[in-house]
Amino acid sequence: MARSSRTKSGGARRGDYESLDNEIPVDEHTHTREAENQLSSDRFASRGKADDVDLLSSSDEFTENEADVKLLPLKEDTRRGPSSARSKRRVVIETPSASSSSLLPEGGELGDRGTDEVAVPKEQRDVGKRIENFLETERKNVLADSFRTDIEDANTDFILSDDEDEYGVPVKPHEIRDESRLLRLKNAIFGKRTWWHIGFFFGAAIFLIFFALKGLAWIRGDKGAGQEYRPVSWYPAPLGGTSSSWSESYRKAHDMVDQMNLVEKVGITTGTGWQMGLCVGNTEGVDSVGFPSLCLQDGPLGLRFADNITAFPAGITTGATWNRDLMRARGTSLGREARAKGVNVILGPSMGAMGLMPAGGRNWESFGSDPVLQAVAAAETIQGIQRIGVMATAKHFVLNEQEHFRQPNEWDNEYAISSNIGDRALHEVFVWPFAESVRADVASVMCAYQMVNNSYSCENSKLINGILKDELGFQGFVQSDWLAQRSGVQSALSGLDMSMPGDGLKWADGEALWGPQLTAAALNTSVPMERLNDMVTRIVAAWFHFRQDTWEERGPNFSSWTNEKMGKLHPGSPDDDSREEVNKFVNAQVSPGSKLHSTIARQVAAEGTVLLKNVNNTLPLSRSASRLKGKYRVGVYGEDAGPGKGPNFCADRGCNQGWGSGTVEFPYLVSPWEALESAWSNETVDWSKTCVLFFANSDGGEGFIHSDGIDGDRNDLFLQRNGTNLVEGVARQCGDGRGRTVVVVHSVGPVVLDPWIDLPGVHAVLYANLPGQESGNALIDVLFGDVDASGRLPYTIGRSLEDYGPSAQVLYETDDAVPQANLDEGLYIDYRHFDRHNITPRYEFGFGLSYTTFDLSDLNIHPLQEKSRLPHPRQKSDIEPPTYDDRHDIPEDCLMPKDFKPLSKYIYPYLLTTDGTEKGKYPYPEGYDKKQKPSEAGGGPGGNPSLWEAMLEVSVKITNTGPRAGKEVIQLYVSFPERVVEHRGMSLKQEEIDFPVRVLRNFDKISLEAGESKTVNMTLSRKDLSYWSVRAQNWVLPTEGTFKIWAGRSSRDLPLMVEY
Prior knowledge:
Blueprint: H1 33-36, H2 64-68, E1 72-74, H3 126-137, H4 144-154, H5 179-190, H6 195-214, H7 217-220, E2 228-230, H8 247-257, H9 262-269, E3 281-282, E4 295-297, H10 315-321, H11 324-340, E5 345-346, H12 371-386, E6 391-397, E7 418-420, H13 423-430, H14 432-439, E8 444-447, E9 451-452, E10 455-456, H15 461-471, E11 477-480, H16 489-493, H17 516-523, H18 529-545, E12 566-567, E13 580-581, H19 597-607, E14 610-614, E15 634-637, H20 672-679, E16 691-698, H21 723-733, E17 740-747, E18 762-767, H22 775-783, E19 820-822, H23 831-836, E20 854-863, E21 950-960, E22 966-975, E23 981-983, E24 990-992, E25 999-1008, E26 1013-1021, E27 1027-1029, E28 1034-1036, E29 1044-1048, E30 1056-1059
Parallel strand pairs: 4-5, 5-6, 6-8, 7-9, 7-19, 8-11, 15-16, 16-17, 17-18
Antiparallel strand pairs: 1-2, 3-4, 9-10, 12-13, 14-18, 20-21, 21-26, 22-25, 22-29, 23-24, 27-28, 29-30
């Protein structure tokens, strides 16, 4: 999300996540962790190898459906470019935009247009040119704006007959067929000629001979340099309401939606426009059935633009705690504050960006650069939020890894950047946290700004329909990031359920891609009523699912746009002359009978601080200075010790920590300077200090803010504001070079430390990440040893930006109309890349020192079932989704009421005219009418329930061998068997599957007194031991060879290993 326009006037076992069809304890103060983590799904009995289909044998057949689910790279000679000469390419319209009424003469049907033939160049498909000509003559129809965008996207899609996915499996091209033209061709050729039979079989023979001679190169996966990626279509959108845990919510939603008319349904799916309500996102309510206007509000670390709330530590700090209980507690506090302020949907947590690019601007909103760490933190946060009855949002789906070129209106490009990825990396890395979020029962998923494989995320049918709604079994609703929707009909058919903030292609212009456009599309059937009903039902079902129908007070009690008590209800409209009580100043910082939320914030900030260096036990410091043999004085240097102009001086925190829509207004900030003054009094500052604390930072954020020459993504990984030179100067001069310099780093991500960290004067380094409002207090807790230094790095700190690999580099400049970010090494993210290329990092993923010492021993595994290659077959759901009758409103009933005075720029669902509402026959995308084969990887929340069967129980003993209490993080990593092969379809050639050296699969944080020992038990699931097979389109567990199970303190400190 973007934009800031506020007016300032004043446990170790990975259990199943519980279903929230059980009572939500809104007013309960605490819940035991054990009760919340009870398994909710039955364990499947183990099966023998005999029951398993040998999927990897050479006799496997390719089905058309299997081919259709690949993500495809194209050859060099079909590079996409919106401004390129289309006459030289084979154009195919793949988008549903071609189904709009703007493509048809009024009242006509496609089959009636036999005389509309147009001569076209030989190389170009007739249907493409015909559609362009229809569009030229019908641009002024009511749906023109929406379909113009659709067609522009469609006209840039190209196909090759030899397309192949990342593993070389051919994919059948998709085309939209002109049925009337096919009939004429049939009469002209198929009905009157017979030579085509001979030609067909002759061509097939040549084709087979070619394969034999060339060794099936396209199956082997031979790829040229610079290939492009294309999406694969997946239609229609799966219907919600097929999960038992949501069945009652969908029943209630059906009964409510069945009473709504078309205009009311559209009003729920379309936002009312930017600043057209008190929240950053607002929908229409339906008073006749008791459904309220929904309030959607940022964000991932607190409530943006709200008063009397808590500025919690950022996601990256939360990830650095590696503490599941704190992740859950922080989420619960976020939920309580949202509930207290009347927010229905909180726009967080974020698990994309994943952190593939260490300089990425929004990495700090998420939890770290590993899918398992991200998944655990996201799931715990979601459960914390939603146990209060507030809907959480998993974002940004998916591959929102950089800010440069993320959306056209922020840059000079006509199109957003395309993040291009293979199917295996997509599943094993970037979709993994979203799967766990769905399994945690998340209410909403937000699609991202940029393209994925050259299709905008919010209209990518493969991502939304195929992966999210079918494979992952998502039952909630998909909402767009703010202005991320780039088409009308296509986004609807591709699975988008809610358009936010309602405006279309430009901010606050009152022009929508849905709203009245969607009303017309439903009337003329270019968007089927079944799809619209499902969109509305998903939203209403989520509202029932989290018991928001029981809320006594509805609507927000604050305004995002003013700090005054009185204000406008719709400040984005120049026509709004309302003056109402918009701010009630409800204190959300404390819940009745519970701790202040600031206490949780302080705990998270302290445990999220990572001790990287500690020479001769410089830390913890002593308030009495006795440890340093006499009195000493302390100097504090660096701008980051305290904000001179106040914590809220810059809009959306554009100058003091990660910035953008993920920030909040600080209610207060305990700066390090203030906290240190309280800890040490009567000190003076000079260069003779025995100890110096230097505060440095590295900042970045969302792309719509530009600060200190940074356009969202950091320009490099060095300290900013001359920090490197300053820390070197301080370290050399402190105590004439004999002093102790302690460096505290506040950063949105990894920083290159090599220029100064080895200086003799630098005795200790604390990586405090982004600690929130309790920054100073949390720092004092760690500096003086009031709590152990127990944070662990949620990413790798390299010695240079280049260490992270080519896929980790932000694309800062491009001449391409559609910027291309080819993430070819996306599987090898962060520490996986370092391990793969044997690069020594400065500090590895998971690293962190403690004030005490720990010993790990007695690593044991206990197999719970035999290995089998595939999960259990997907079971057909016996729960049918809601169905509605085929009734359609008449266009006249959808017109703006004559006595209604509309506000300018407000997005209404009403029609202004009935033009373009005539029903017609539309050329939907190929495959839209074909019933898709459900993914075998699906069948339950997050995927096939069999994927979460426990395969291994792992135990390890940990002992605190140091002089004081402390906390240690036990990390479990898995190395896959050395040789795993798949057969390539019709070829007898085997393909060896490549794996990272090791991958994180589980972790737990343990607190121990001095001398205390504990045995920690963890489990590894089927999914933990599986890889995503692109050819099989399923998770495959290697049954041959030996796994290695590692236990240790970081990705490179793994003293214990056992084979399985």
